[in-house]
Design a protein that fits this description.
The chain has 4 domains: about 20-145, PAS domain (Beta-Lactamase, 2-Layer Sandwich), CATH 3.30.450.20; about 160-260, PAS domain (Beta-Lactamase), CATH 3.30.450; about 265-445, GAF domain (Beta-Lactamase), CATH 3.30.450; about 525-680, Heat Shock Protein 90 (2-Layer Sandwich), CATH 3.30.565. About 45% of the residues lie in helices and about 25% in strands. Residues about 1-20 and about 635-640 have low confidence and may be disordered. A hairpin with a 4-residue loop joins strand 8 and strand 9. The protein starts with 20 loop residues before the first strand and ends in a 7-residue tail after the last strand. The chain is built from 21 helices and 24 strands. The strands form 6 sheets. Strands 4-3-7-6-5 form a 5-stranded antiparallel sheet, sandwiched between helices. The chain has a 5-stranded antiparallel sheet with strand order 9-8-12-11-10, sandwiched between helices. Strands 14-13-17-16-15 form a 5-stranded antiparallel sheet.
Length: about 675
């Protein structure tokens, strides 16, 4: 470039008349002004040096770069680039200049120009006489690449550090990408998953269900979130899976992007809490703990474990297998046969026997083959234990009030679950409730036996008392009738009092006998059609002497006569009379003055008998308690009026035996009202 301009070509000035002229040979020549304008319009900084590295030309952008670096571009023209800028040009830049000059080849280098604070790519192109340096600002590209690299690094960090499975599929459901967590969920590595379909890892049903969801995502464009259980190689896990569309640069659907969160622990906790609630209900609804514990064992599968067995300690100290549960009935039967063949022996230093002995829970997070070999009795036993496939186990004692009543064994097998100390609280709570059920059953059995003994005693002693009382009444009557000789008036009076006391005592004994028969369920009824008015008269006649002795008015309200006919009903007349006499006697006992009234009315298909008094009354909080056996509002009053405290209890039980009931209303200081409601047709005895 022999005619190179020493210094910047003029960028402005009056345009030549003929921009395109010819040189001496007649060829077209480019105007310097036109050339300068063209070079200044380039996006590159252009620097021209000779082979001695002297600067011959700088375009506007190159001059601006120099000014930004604190160098006067005008002072650089004609000076050696390597000398003048040697302090700011890196060695690799100078080496590129020397190489391009010496070898006559174009050399490109990329560097971060510190004085400029920019990334610059420089291409050094040699020609016959000069070296032309084209420098381009790559800062934006570098920033974009840096941001992309940071974004990729962040994405990689998310994919590798997250506990969620993340995957990308094409429209056919083939994996395009998956992180290590997602691949591990399929028991594979990412390389083993990419390029494959779910059908190659899951059974036909599961893969078809997943594919159906993905097709819905593609069809609707909506993101779908579902919870479901995935079984891979026999291991069951619960996942919350979200799937949505990913789109290409044109906005078209490119495939499926998804995320799966392992919610197995959460579901297990939910199942465990539900199990406790259901187990509590089951354990409370029956006192046959053998049946309820067997039900609880089956509830524990698969909520807590794949296998569950219940062992109880018998009264003689032996260990009895009460239940074995598994979701597969065939495997459950095989396990039950194994337990029968190899029963638990007390004081064995391992397993459930040791838990029963020590009363402390044991957790085996990983059950090794060595552990199975240590527990096995012989080679056949070891083979059966291996067949169960236990991977983890947890054994908890059933303890109640300081006693160990047995143990519950929970075993994880095909689910792949691993028990830890965190699983103990729920298992121990289940065992505690089970122990309480056993204890309650034992207490109920003991109470029932004691109650039977009490009833038998009362019945026996009552019968024994009736015999001499009947003799007393008989001989008293003989004396009163003068069979053995004349009796004076004073003696008659005394005999009358003896007879009254004996009759009263006989009534008390009959009341106790009636109560024991009712409590034992042995009271019988004999229903027949009766005239209600006659039954009322009989009851009133039995109570009148007691009311007269206390100077109380005893009133009988008129009996209703529907359609002008006497009121009739079908019931046990003796039990009805006993109920009414008990209520009337009770009213007389607790009424100091005033009146006692017996009335009757119809209420639909029922006959209602009401005994009202003007007595001391009953506090509202005690209205139901008065029907409890042996209970009275005031013990002092009880001592004052006497009695067994069974009258109201017997009356209510008899009324219910006849298909009705007895209720009470009362106001303290004003009196009480007891209402007997019986059906007009009482049910026959069972």
């Amino acid at each position: 470039m022999s005619d190179a301009v020493a210094g910047p070509l003029p960028r402005y000035g009056p345009p030549p008349a003929h921009p395109m002229s010819t040189d001496a040979s007649g060829h077209p020549a480019v105007s310097p002004t036109l050339l300068a304008g063209a070079l200044d319009s380039l996006p590159d900084a252009v620097t021209v040096v000779d082979f001695g590295f002297r600067v011959l030309y700088l375009n506007a952008l190159a001059a601006q770069y120099l000014r930004d670096a604190g160098v006067d571009p005008g002072a650089l023209i004609g000076k050696r680039l390597d000398v003048e800028l040697g302090s700011i040009l890196p060695e690799d830049y100078l080496e590129a200049l020397r190489r391009a000059s010496a070898e006559g080849i174009a050399v490109t280098l990329e560097r971060h120009a510190i004085p400029l604070g920019r990334w610059i790519e420089t291409r050094i192109v040699p020609s016959r006489d000069v070296l032309t340096l084209y420098s381009r600002d790559l800062t934006k590209r570098h920033d974009a690449e840096r941001r992309a690299a940071e974004s990729n690094a962040l994405l990689h960090a998310i994919l590798t550090s997250t506990s969620d499975a993340i995957f990308v599929k094409d429209l056919e459901g083939r994996y395009l990408a998956i992180n290590s967590v997602g691949a591990a969920a399929l028991h594979r590595t990412p390389d083993e998953v990419i390029g494959h379909l779910d059908a190659e890892f899951l059974d036909e049903r599961q893969s078809a269900e997943l594919r159906e969801i993905e097709e819905e995502v593609v069809r609707t464009g909506r993101t779908i979130q579902r919870e479901g259980m995935i079984v891979v190689d026999g291991v069951r896990r619960w996942y919350l899976i979200s799937r949505g569309i990913w789109r290409d640069a044109r906005g078209a659907a490119g495939g499926i992007v998804g995320m799966a969160t392992n919610i197995t622990e959460r579901r297990q906790r939910e199942q465990a809490n539900s199990l406790l609630a259901e187990a509590g209900r089951v354990l409370a609804e029956s006192l046959d703990y053998r049946i309820t514990l067997n039900t609880v064992a089956h509830l524990a599968v698969p909520a807590l474990a794949d296998w569950c067995s219940v062992l109880i300690k018998t009264r003689d100290g032996a260990l009895e297998s009460l239940a074995v549960a598994h979701t597969d009935a065939d495997r459950e039967q095989a396990a039950r046969e194994m337990v029968e063949r190899y029963p638990n022996v007390p004081d064995t230093p391992t397993g459930a026997s040791r838990v029963v002995s020590t009363g402390r829970s044991e957790v085996y997070t990983d059950v090794s083959d060595d552990l199975l070999a240590a527990v096995a009795r012989d080679a056949d036993h070891l083979a059966l234990l291996r067949e169960i496939g236990m991977r983890s186990a947890m054994i908890v004692p059933m303890r109640a009030h300081g006693r160990t009543l047995g143990a519950i064994s929970l075993i994880a097998a095909e689910s792949g679950r691993r028990f830890t100390e965190r699983d103990l609280p729920i298992a121990e709570e289940l065992a505690r409730r089970s122990a309480l059920a056993i204890e309650n059953a034992e207490l109920f059995e003991a109470a029932a036996a004691a109650n039977r003994a009490k009833s038998d005693f009362l019945a026996s002693i009552s019968h024994e008392l009736r015999t001499p009382l009947n003799a007393i009444l008989g001989y008293t009557q003989l004396l009163s009738d003068g069979i053995t000789g004349p009796v004076n008036d004073a003696q008659q009076h005394q005999l009358k009092r003896v007879r009254a006391s004996a009759t009263h005592l006989l009534g008390l004994i009959d009341e106790v006998l009636s109560f024991t028969r009712l409590e034992a369920g042995r009271e019988q009824v004999a229903v027949a059609e009766i005239d209600v008015a006659d039954a009322l008269d009989d009851a009133m006649s039995l109570v009148r002497p007691l009311a007269a002795a206390r100077d109380l008015d005893l009133e009988l309200a008129p009996t209703p006569a529907p359609h002008g006919e006497p009121l009739r009903m079908v019931t046990d007349v003796l039990r009805l009379r006993q109920i009414l006499v008990n209520l009337l006697n009770n009213a007389v006992k607790f009424t100091d003055r005033g009146r006692i009234t017996l009335s009757t009315h119809l209420a639909g298909d029922d006959v209602v008998f009401t005994v009202s008094d003007t007595g001391i009354g009953i506090p509202s909080e005690h209205l139901e308690r008065v029907f409890e056996p042996f209970w009275q509002v005031e013990q002092a009053a009880s001592r004052r009026v006497g009695g067994t405290g069974l009258g109201l209890s017997v009356s209510r039980r008899l009324a219910r035996l006849l298909g009705g009931d007895v209720t009470a209303r009362s106001t303290v200081g004003e009196g009480s009202s007891f209402e007997v409601r019986l059906p007009r047709v009482s049910p026959p005895a069972d």
